[in-house]
Amino acid sequence: MKGLKNHRLRNSIFIRLVCMFLLIITPIILLGFYIYSWSVKTASNDISQTAEMQVSYYLKDLENEIERIRMLQYDALNDVYLQKLAVTWEAMDDIKRTESIMLLWNRLSSIKSSSAYINDVSAHIRPISKTISANNGASDFEEERFERLRSNYIVSGSNLIIWNGGLFLSASSVSGNKNREPLFVIEIELDLGKLKQAIGQFHTHPYSGAVLLMPREELLIVNDSVERVPEVALNLVRQSHLQKGFFTGTAELEGREYFVAGAVSERLGLQAYKYLPKKVILEPLDRFYLWAWIFGVVSVVILMIYAFSTYKFIHKPLLVLVKGFRRVEHGDLNVSIGSKQNDEFGYLYERFNYMVTNLSHLINQVYKQKIMMQRAELKQLQSQINPHFLYNSFFILNTMSLTGDTEGVERFLLQLGQYYQFVTRNASDEISLDKEVQHARIYTEIQSLRFDRRITVRFDELPAKMVHVQVPRLIIQPIIENAFEHSLEEMTEHGHITIRFVLAEQWIQIVVEDNGNSLTDQQLQQLSIQLQSSAEGAEVTGMLNIHRRIQLIFGESSGLAIARSELGGLQVRITIPEGGRLDDV
Asked: Could you tell me which residue ranges the HAMP domain spans (predicted)?
């Protein structure tokens, strides 16, 4: 902790930040106490300037929402199942009728769910004398409702319809007869409660309220903070209308003067009004503006001082540290940060330099040594395979020479040359899987000369995704050799070896299995135990050799697994990651 010896409280970044915070917050507190009494008056001034805009925006949003609902309504007129119900009802069986009704009901329910302003969506279908509602499902045809709503079908763009105390949108489909009677009507009933709730956003002050007025005052929606009766609110709107039209004005109600802001939607035929006491608007004081400017200027100066101090005492030291980490990130372990600071950053710089020195030491002394040991072990394990096959090759060649099979000797020597050309190529520890499979095929062709077709070998096609996967050299051929020598050598006929390739979600597997009959359950269990308990420093040969090499490269989750084959002999399953070397290896 040498870096902290000269560390003093007065040099602490924490103290500096506390002082800067006090410097910022103290003027704000002082100014806040002074201007607290003027805050409500400032808000009232904003209300007076934005009241008309609020009403206009509200009505515009409502207009856009109604227009969107209209689009859905007209789109529903072209619904396939609605057309089928209206035109082909008689030709449909009960199942088709029920299915069409349910699908149409789903369409209507979807429209209803698309907007909070929709109370219900119904399709009145005259040819089948049925009404299908999103809320109530299928019911009897309502003739009066149909006649009242269909009167609007000729108009381009469905207008709002006031009927029976409700507000509706109607869209009709024209039939082919000369009277142009509609086949069906799509009706959307708007939720008056939601409309009333929506205009409640204008309740910003006591005695304020809002009015949504329909054409010819046939329908009035009032949302008032003091629960005035509709007639009183309507009188207030009428006074405003007589004086200033549909936009702004003043009116008197119950001995109190009000400011009224309104807007009109020509497309919907709606009028929206917001009213609030005029006293709320006229109360702001002039001195508020002066103090607002003073507060703004002082705040800017304080913020500039704080920004400069933060940059000097925090940002610049952090930037030096970040640059150091970036150099280490790019592999430069010779980086060193020099600093005369006695605060926390000085300590961090010293610890950073110490960390980089230790990291470099660990890489050189531990990691590199371990990698070199693993590569040496890998070379040693791989070289153990070559003498074993060499002995067998001399035996086969000797046998063929004694029998006088010169043509076979020539073919055998050619294949043997290709085999050892692969084995003795030490350019890389790993090769692509397709080359490893090709080498295994050459080996089986050599063995077929020895066993004179007593044993057949079948290779499945290698999947395209597995062709270029990098694997250790000589992992398939020794397993096939094991099947030849230990499982099938004594069989006089019908010996069989199969090599399959399995592509799983994150792994690829190479499966080698035979139909040998000499493997006992005890031998299978013993070999499985050996694979599971292979320890560092232990002698590894044959399949243990392959298992160990694969785990050295791909990790403990990979390697060999053995089981009883469905063919009756041994099944060896080689598992490696699909993408090659794992990140944690």
From this structure: 312-364
pLDDT at site 502 = 92
- Cα three-residue angle 557-562-567, rounded to 5 degrees: 140
Of 137, 167, 190, which one is at a domain's C-terminal end? Answer: 190
- pTM across the whole model: 0.41
> What residues have CB less than 8 Å from 362, skipping those under 6 apart?
none
Domain assignment present for 96: yes
Query: pLDDT of 409-444, one tens digit each?
Result: 887 788 888 877 777 665 567 889 999 999 899 888
Which of 109, 156, 154 lies closest to 135 in space, CA to CA? 109
Report CA-CA distances (Å) from 282 to 45, 203, 536: 7, 18, 90
Q: What number of other Cβ atoms are within 10 A of residue 194's Cβ? A: 13
Q: Which amino acid is at 355?
A: M
Query: CB under 8 Å to 199, separation ≥6 — which residues?
Result: 58, 210, 211, 212, 221, 223, 272
Contact call for residues 9 and 15 (beta carbons, < 8 A): yes
SS3 348: helix
Q: How far is CA 148 from CA 81, 132, 472, 513, in A?
A: 24, 17, 83, 81
What is the average per-residue pLDDT within 478-504?
Answer: 86
Domain with 433 in it:
384-577
Q: Is residue 510 part of a domain?
A: yes
Provide the CATH number for the domain around residue 464.
3.30.565.10
> pLDDT of 73-121, one tens digit each?
888 888 888 888 888 888 888 888 888 889 989 988 999 999 888 999 9
Alpha-carbon span 344 to 325, nearest angstrom = 17
Decide: 117 and 195 in contact? Cβ < 8 Å: yes
**CA–CA dist 426, 380 (Å, integer):** 12
Please identify, among 155, 190, 225, the residue that sits at the C-terminal boundary of a domain.
190
